[in-house]
Amino acid sequence: MSAPILRIEELSAEFVTPDGTVKAVNHVSLSLREGGTLALTGESGSGKTSVALCALNLLPHPGRITSGRILLNNVDVLSLTSEALRQVRGRDIAMVFQDPATGLNPVLSVGQQVEEIITNHLEVPRREAKRRTVEVLGQMGLPEPAQVATRYPFQLSGGMAQRVMIAIATALNPKVLILDEPTSALDVTVQAAILQDLRRLQQTYGTSILLITHDLGIVAQMAEEVAIMYAGSVVEYAEARTLFDRPRHPYTWSLLASRPRWDREGGGRLPSIRGTPPSLIDLPDECPFLPRCPKATNVCRTERIPALIALEAGHYAACYNPIYQEEPAGAGARPD
Ligand SMILES: Nc1ncnc2c1ncn2[C@@H]1O[C@H](COP(=O)(O)OP(=O)(O)O)[C@@H](O)[C@H]1O
Ligand code: SF4
Ligand SMILES: [Mg+2]
After folding, report:
1. Is residue 159 a part of any domain in this protein?
2. 235 and 202 in a common domain
3. Ligand 1 centroid, distance to 283 Cα (angstroms)
């Protein structure tokens, strides 16, 4: 396996709100390999988007990073000056945001928006910026890219708008691309086509992808490695095949155990499991999954929150009673 290009080490972040401090990210460590795809998955509110925003040092007010390092090619992103950060964003690391409102500028044409990012970073003649614009739009599967470049956001379908946003993020060929729920709002056919374009892009340029999704079908299709987040922490981390074949954390196990449902209902959306996650304002001292856990024992009630430990090479789980049943309900659940 290739070396890591992006390492997130012991990252913690919080939002200070009038209701209290939301502990959105708690001691998260992740490692994205060069040319690889790491999926970050978990229920809504588990901290996925916050981790991604921290990776670009873009956590908005009232958010703040309280500890940790973000190493991009061994350079700590959090220690960079704002000018250095501006250079790094777009060129070395880029993100397609989950919130469509932060995506496209309604008053600029598609072409202007792609060209802007190119000319902001590179000293290239206008003609070259235009050529590259058409190239990246075509690369993201937009037919007649020169014509699409003249359109305004309101003239685009949802699928086209998403392709344009990915084209903007990839205009400078960033080494690391973060995609936050890139296809969640789209129908399955458009989704499949966009994922295919992303895979082709990755093969052509060796782009490393951090893919945030709550769709286990997409995880299975796209990722070599997976981190499962729960209540702001990574609770299980493994190669995708291992995780689908041998889930060890009861939360992952529960998700995969409901596979017939997520499979049959299509889309692979994260199944809902019994109970609700804890408030991130009053995070308990013990395992945050305790109230929902079918495997809980006394130790879970008396000990503090379990740390992520290696159960086998490259397979980590944060649990006092990891599941070792060789035929869990999720076994063989990896859809091909
Ligand atoms: N701007 C914000 N202000 C206050 N709380 C926030 C803000 N953004 C996110 N949060 C909280 O942080 C937690 C993690 O959110 P988020 O990172 O968006 O999770 P996910 O992407 O997994 O849905 C949630 O409890 C959410 O309500
Ligand atoms: S530590 Fe205990 S409560 Fe938490 S997931 Fe493991 S078995 Fe369940
Ligand atoms: Mg999110």
Report:
1. yes
2. no
3. 14
Spatial separation of the C-alpha atoms in residues 178 and 168, rounded to whole Å: 12
DSSP letters spanning 171-190: TT--SEEEEESTTTTS-HHH
CB of 28 sitting under 6 A from ligand 1: no
Closest CA to 110 of 147, 135, 141: 147
- 323 within some domain: no
C-alpha 44 to ligand 3 mean position (Å): 6
Q: Are residues 234 and 209 in the same domain?
A: no
Residue 171: name the closest of 232, 228, 218, 130 by CA. Answer: 130
Residue whose CB lies within 8 A of the most ligand 2 atoms, among 295, 302, 305, 316, for a mutation test: 295
pLDDT per 10-residue tile (average), the chain, 336 residues: 92 97 97 98 95 96 97 96 93 89 88 95 95 96 97 94 95 97 90 95 96 93 97 97 95 81 58 84 93 95 95 96 69 38
pLDDT tens-place string over residues 112-139: 999 999 999 999 999 999 999 999 999 9
Specify if 324 maps to a domain: no
Q: Are residues 112 and 22 in the same domain?
A: yes
Query: Looking at the structure, do residues 131 and 252 belong to the same domain, yes or no?
Result: no
The structure's pTM equals 0.93
Q: Domain of 234?
A: 227-317
